[in-house]
Specification:
heterodimer; A: mainly alpha; Cytochrome C Oxidase, Chain A; two-stranded antiparallel sheet; B: alpha+beta; Immunoglobulin-like; six-stranded mixed beta sheet; five-stranded mixed beta sheet; about 40% helix
């Protein structure tokens, strides 16, 4: 892509839309379109409109609803696990079901909820609208992507119904135990899990190519890369990461499937399984861990980068202020993305890999803290001297800053190889990653849903219900995960069905389990409130005015709201500025949409973008 | 106002919880107290950042909450401020990393005078093997594992003959003497973890991993498996008892060598065969 692409950039930087510095007679000039307007597929029936839809907006909603539905199952599983941990005396679960629920909860939340929701859901909804395109570059492939995801989910759920049940190998699926007796679902559930992941990767690749090409090729006239909203930068970079990371997962899954079904020995050394010597020989279990985490660590950022991007936009719009340090933010996103491929083995400090790797991976891991910290600084400097509207999206964004900060800082514990030794495989790790890639991105998801809901339905979500939802979710989840770190200090190991009366674990530590479980139940129940609000507001919600948050980005500038098929009516939009011109001195309003030409805002002291 | 106050209270609450909650690490029983020190250092640095940023957010929310007649500042960039913050962060991160790497170097460098103990893990329990008089652990192979030879020592290796086999969940180690745990598993991944020792390392079938430590106080400690290993993972507990020299030697004297165990097992087998024949 590079040559053509750079050429395009240069061509665009010549005209930059700033009124004061351009001496051409027409200050509103934008370059001509380079591609003819996209020809769209027009649906003719109910089926092709709502089910096998090729419209990215519908596909986005389909992705989001499927992901949220699967995520609800993940939520219920977490309740079941937590009840077992708090009241082991109930005899509520068998150890095998406990491990199956742990595994399915983890995989569902990371892959089938968060990845699908951020990229499939928000990606589809927002990329064409925010870039000023009519649809994705390849609508048909986009539809296939969604349906591959549906099949992947169905296969995943089917594993609950095969003999032996779903796999209980832990979401990391480490061999040899994932495919040997002694682990629940070792010969049925695990195969379906691997097939489901393979389908997911295939489907996701179709979607991902679409996102990348749409961002690179179908941006509106005047929409340079450095005028893209950070949401798009986040989703775009995450998709690029996914294109490099998912293949590692794919081959890992394929190789393990072969080990299990055909008796190959990619990951299987000579070993005894519950008294029986197996025929495998010479494979390396650590090889799988490398493949898994080469996917798994970028995966963290595949979830986090879209969240970073979205929260930047929410903070800017709702504090009526320019995002602070936009260029630094873009480079931080790209930098974090690139670095994320050099840190994977920090998940493996005590895995038995050559311990000398520890020096390298501890160093790279702590380096990645620098661009991440820059992002946090820029978020809070966006609030500084802003005009902060405490709307629902802003509340959730503030919640994100606190939880992400907390989870990010505990990452400095675990990333620093020595500190990791006592803390790895304890509840400290569980608390850390739930805070940083569970709660923090989920808070952004909620903020984003409250923010873009009017764009999808034309109505606002109920504010009071939303506030109740926010406070319970934010305070509640902090109450779950903050104390959990301290269980980790005590040394409570993760993935324990039951602790018994270990001599070193105080009774109060077990009491803390009860407290955490009660908080889990309350926070989980509060999500029902959110679901009610989500569905009821589509009918009962207050009608939204056009551009209800007075935002600048393109998605709010469509001729109709909600946007119709093709998004832009007859004429594609022209872009004259970045989306962060808020509170510009000399401007009439405190926001200047990207589509507003310089001639209409003469006198506003706008900086060149 | 409520929002700013909540963020303020959450910050204060977190700090209070840190200092006054009863949950903290166990008293260290090995030389790895310096791991605790690096954790404390990390706490001080990250804690300060956490408090500063949360207070800053709370202040902004309180001070700059929306007023219709006010406008936000228009200042897209501040190169100086951004570069200062970047450097300050880089220095902070380096301050965390450097001591961490120093301690890691100690952790992966086994002292020459450390004596060896093999920890043998299986689904779901522990066994142990000591090198015996020659101080060399005999070679092993999965293929040799059977009822007579549960540790799978290679019969032809003379170094294995005097190895002491501890077919029990309980291990004794010497106080104040560095010990290198050679970690072996015959089935899936496990991890030999004693919370009070702080050390940890996965056991991987096909290879022998290791870590070392010097026990610093006499006591009876629980061993846990710290790497998920199947349905029985949570029940995979053992014991390590740190002894003074005298008690240790008493325990050591009770352990049986490989040669003797083999002879005993074979005799039993022969007896059984005889019984079957009859």
């Amino acid at each position: 892509m590079s040559d053509e692409f750079e050429h395009k950039l240069e061509a665009k930087s010549d005209y930059a839309g700033d009124a004061s510095s351009v001496s051409t007679p027409d200050i509103d000039a934008v370059p001509d379109a380079e591609l003819p307007d996209q020809e769209l597929y027009h649906s003719h029936s109910w089926w092709t409109t709502y089910v096998f839809s090729q419209d990215a907006k519908y596909i986005g909603i389909q992705y989001a609803l499927t992901a949220i539905g699967t995520g609800l199952l993940g939520l219920v599983l977490s309740w079941l696990m937590r009840i077992q941990l708090a009241w082991p005396g109930l005899g509520w679960l068998e150890p095998s079901s406990y491990y199956q629920f742990v595994t399915m909860h983890g995989m569902i939340m990371v892959v089938y909820l968060l990845t699908a929701l951020f990229l499939g859901g928000f990606g589809n909804l927002l990329i064409p609208l925010m870039c000023g395109a009519r649809d994705m570059a390849f609508p048909y492939v986009n539809m296939l992507s969604y349906w591959a995801f549906v099949v992947a989910v169905v296969v995943l759920l089917a594993s609950f119904f095969v003999p032996g049940g779903p796999t209980g190998a832990g979401w990391t699926l480490y061999p040899p135990q994932a495919i040997t007796a002694g682990t629940p679902g070792y010969n049925g559930g695990i195969i379906l899990m691997l097939i489901s992941l393979i389908l997911f990767v295939a489907g996701f690749t179709m979607g991902g190519l679409n996102y990348i090409i749409t961002v690179l090729q179908l941006r509106a006239r005047g929409m340079t890369l450095m005028r893209l909203p950070l949401t798009i930068w986040g989703i775009f970079t995450a998709t690029v990461l996914a294109m490099f990371a998912f293949p590692a997962l794919l081959v890992g899954c394929l190789m393990m499937t072969l080990d299990s079904l055909l008796g190959t020995s990619f990951f299987m050394p000579a070993m005894v399984s519950l008294g029986e010597t197996l025929t495998h020989e010479g494979g390396s279990p650590i090889l799988f861990q490398h493949l898994f985490w080469f996917f798994g660590h970028p995966e963290v950022y595949i979830v986090a980068l879209p969240a970073f991007g979205i929260v930047s936009d929410l903070l800017s719009v709702h504090s009526r202020k320019t995002i602070f340090g936009y260029r630094m933010m873009v480079w931080a996103i790209v930098g974090i993305g690139a670095l994320s491929f050099f840190v994977w083995a920090h998940h493996m400090y005590v895995s038995g890999m050559n311990p000398w790797f520890g020096f390298f991976f501890a160093t790279t891991t702590l380096i990645i803290a620098v661009p991440t910290a820059i992002k946090v600084y820029n978020w809070i400097l966006t609030l500084w001297r802003g005009n902060i509207v405490l709307s629902l999206p802003m509340l959730f964004s503030l919640g994100f800053i606190v939880t992400f900060l907390n989870g990010g800082l505990t990452g400095l514990f675990l990333g620093n190889v020595t500190v990791d030794v006592p803390l790895s495989d304890t509840y400290f790790v569980v608390a850390h990653f739930h805070m940083v890639m569970g709660i923090a991105p989920i808070l952004v998801v909620f903020g984003a849903i409250y923010h873009w809901y009017p764009l999808v339905t034309g109505r606002m979500m109920n504010e009071t219900l939303g506030k109740v939802h926010f406070w319970i979710t934010f305070i509640g989840s902090y109450a779950i995960y903050f104390p959990m770190h301290y269980q980790g200090f005590v040394g409570v190991p993760r993935r324990y069905f039951e602790i018994y009366d270990s001599p070193y674990i105080d009774v109060s530590t077990l009491l803390l389990n009860k407290f955490i479980t009660i908080a889990v139940l309350i926070v989980g129940a509060a999500q029902l409130l959110f679901l009610y609000n989500l569905f009821a507001s589509a009918r009962l919600g207050k009608k939204a005015e056009k551009n209800p948050w007075k935002a600048n980005s393109l998605e709010w500038q469509t001729p109709q709201m909600p946007p119709e098929h093709g998004n832009w009516g007859k004429e594609l939009p022209k872009v004259y500025r970045w989306p962060y011109d808020f509170s510009v001195p000399g401007a009439k309003e405190d926001y200047i949409p990207q589509t507003q030409p310089p001639s209409e805002i003469i006198g506003a002291k706008v900086e060149k973008t | 106002m409520i929002v700013a106050l909540s963020i303020f209270l959450i910050t204060i609450g977190s700090v209070a919880f840190h200092f006054w909650s009863p949950w903290w690490w166990t008293e260290v029983a090995s030389n790895w107290g310096n791991m605790d020190d690096t954790i404390l250092l990390t706490f001080w640095i990250t804690g300060a950042v956490f408090i500063a940023i949360c207070f800053f957010v709370a202040y902004c929310v309180w001070k700059y909450s929306y007023k219709r007649d006010r406008r936000a500042e228009y200042k897209p960039e501040d190169k100086k401020l951004e570069s200062r913050l970047t450097w300050a962060t880089a220095i902070g991160v380096a301050a965390l990393l450097a001591p961490g790497l120093v301690v890691w170097n100690q952790y992966v460098t086994v002292p020459k005078d450390a004596y060896k103990v093999e920890v043998f893990a299986y689904q779901w329990g522990w066994k142990y093997r000591l090198p015996g008089k020659d101080n060399i652990l005999g070679k092993t192979d999965i293929k040799y594992i059977n009822d007579e030879n549960p540790f799978g020592l290679i019969l032809e290796d003379p170094n294995g003959k005097d190895d002491l086999l501890v077919d029990a969940q309980e291990l004794h180690v010497l106080k104040d003497r560095p010990v290198k745990f050679e970690l072996r598993t015959i089935d899936v991944l496990h991890n030999f973890y004693v919370p009070q020792f702080r050390g940890k390392m996965d056991m991987v079938p096909g290879i022998v991993t290791y870590y070392w430590l010097t026990p610093t106080r006499v006591g009876d400690f629980e061993v846990l498996c710290a790497e998920y290993c199947g349905t029985g993972h949570y029940a995979m507990r053992g014991r390590v008892i740190v002894d003074e020299e005298k008690d240790y030697r008493k325990w050591e004297a009770k352990q049986i060598t490989f040669e003797k165990m083999l002879a005993k097992n074979r005799k039993n087998d022969n007896l059984q065969l005889v019984k079957k024949d009859k």
